[in-house]
Each structure stands twice: as structure tokens, then as C-alpha cells.
Amino acid sequence: MPRPISATVHTDALRHNLARVKSAVPDARVAAVVKANAYGHGIERVFDALRAADAFALLDLAEAQRVRALGWRGPILLLEGVFEPRDLELCSRLGLWHAVHCDEQIDWLAAHKTQEPHHVFLKMNGGMNRLGFTPVRYRSAWARLNALPQVGEISLMMHFSDADGMRQGVDGIQHQIQAFESATQDLPGERCLSNSAAILRYGQGLPMRNDWVRSGIVMYGSSPDFPEHDIAHWGLLPTMTLSSRLIATQDLQPGDTVGYGSAFVAEQAMRIGIVACGYADGYQRLSPTGTPILVDGVRTRIVGRVSMDMLTVDLTPVPAAAIGSEVTLWGRARNGRILPIDEVARASGTVGYELMCAVAARVALQVD
Ligand SMILES: *Cc1c(COP(=O)(O)O)cnc(C)c1O
Asked: Which of 4, 53, 1 is nearest to 362 (CA)?
């Protein structure tokens, strides 16, 4: 028997969550973000469930090739654009849409030979200061692109830094909306604005056109504004279950310690279970004692330090647990009990995004 850890992708939940996105922004078209191998789920595993989207968005040219190889003829958007001039050849060949965020990318386009003009997404730096042209420089970049025979349609794109909450006491999207509006008011072209947090929190309510949304984490069953709202609040379902089994149990006496650094000390007699899952599987080493976990669908906690291949759980609430018992690190247990990835992430000082993206290659991915 292979080591009993696996990650199961729930395609029914992916479909459900995508439908949730569509109902939140019924007038917008949805680009399903499948970067980072579909947030750790596997592009090939999510493709069928997400093909009801209007486009796929990703970063890597190799991932774009995988989506085309699956037979997708619709739009594919490269969210960071191209990384060097010859990437444009692949864009021409595969008909990829690509972001343009800096002058160099415009230079490369100007020198590119193509039969078909490219559909580009001109990125505004709306204050996040990662990619894009500042509002002051945005219009001249647009004019430069617009003059190029290599460029067809120009869509206008911006990314929100604080759509999941407030910024300096006001709605987190306010300052960026104002910057975008004043720089783009009379420019033609579709607008591509909302990420998951903006889709859920503002829906259709942005005070400007929002032709395209870029939907990532919401499709993968994690709440972008947890703990303010959990997935149940947003009507989302977990799309990934990381599960394993108990491979041993130990009976502890008061004062006995567990694992490296003896980081957990038993205060009373207790039983613990040893789970075939460690940081080499992608589980966070920093997840402390108290991090929630399900054993046979019953909620309990991990105790002691997570090691490379194992972690330890308190079996007090599950006295019947034994070698072979089902362990749910996050997701859906066989008895239907759900442990949202966001709760595990929160206890570990991170976000659901990081946990799902970190699932290691040695963990078998399954689909149900
Ligand atoms: C990753 C990414 C998204 C998706 O973000 P979520 O919070 O997962 O919805 C949207 N836009 C851009 C530019 C991205 O890089």
C-alpha cells in the first residue's frame, strides 16, 4: 500500500463555486485563474469543472500550453504578460491574451512580427506598486500601444490590494477606484478589475464598468476575507481534501513529551495518534499545538511540532480511533464533516492560498 496520504479534488464543489461567482457578477465575464497549477489542484483536474468560465488566466507559458492541449480554444490571459521578447511568438501561435505592465513589454511588441494583432490588457499600478503603469503614465502607455499594428484590442486592467477589507478606515477599493476612474474615463476598451474578494464583497456594485473579473481563491473553496466571513457565509464548498491515516498511537502519562524539541508536554494521561503527514507533504511546519484536524470526522487538535513526515494528534475526543483511522487535514471527511482550509491556515499564521499551493508533489492527487 502506498503511504496513505492523498489530496482529493472535488469537481462538484469547483462547479458549485464557479456558479457562485457567476451569480455574484452576472453581467461580467469570468476569467478562471488557474495559476500555480490551479492553486495546487492540478490544471488537468480542474479543467472540466471550470470550462464554464469565459477565459482562463495564468502566469506561466507552459501552463497556457497545457490549457490549450486540453482542447481549450477560448481566451487565455497571461496575468504578468511576457517575460522576454520571444515569448510573444508563443502568444501569437497560441492566441494568448497578455498583460502589458511596463515600457519594455511595449518595446518588445513594437519589434514583434505577427499576422494577428494581439489582445492586450494594459495594467495600471493602482497603488499596490508591484506591476503596472501609474495613473499619470497610463494614458501615454495606452497611446503607444494603440499606435502599434501588432496590437488589436486594449483592455484596461487593475488589481485591488485591499478588496478583502478596509484601508485607512475606508472601503479598501475606494482609493484605487478613484485613481483608475480619473486616468481611464474617456479611454475605450473593456475593464478587468475584480479579484475574488471584490467579486464576493462588491459583486456588481463597483461604481464603474467591470466587464471581466479574475476569479481565483473563491473557486477553490477558501474565503478571501476570512475570518470576517467564512466559506459557509459565502456559500462556498471546499474543493480539496487533504487526508491521511493514523499509522500509530501512543499512550502518554502526565509529563510525557511529544516530538522534536519536546514541544508538547502531557498534563494528564492521554492517547495520541501519529498521522502520515508532515511538512514534506506541504503541511506547515509552523502549525502549532491546537491547530484543528479531524480524526474519523471528529474535530480535535494537533499536538507538538510537525515533523517532516509525521504529525501528532490528540485522540481524547475520539477514543475509538486506531491505526488506519481516517484523518482529514482540511476539507471534507467521509462522514460529511467539513474542516475549512481557512481555519487550519489561520491557526498556522497563513492563508488558505498558501496551504493549497504548498501540497507537495509526493502527495497523490485524486479526483472525485
Ligand atoms: C492571482 C491573481 C488573481 C486572483 O486572485 P484571487 O484573490 O485568488 O481571486 C487576480 N488577478 C491577478 C492579477 C492575479 O495575479
From this structure: 4
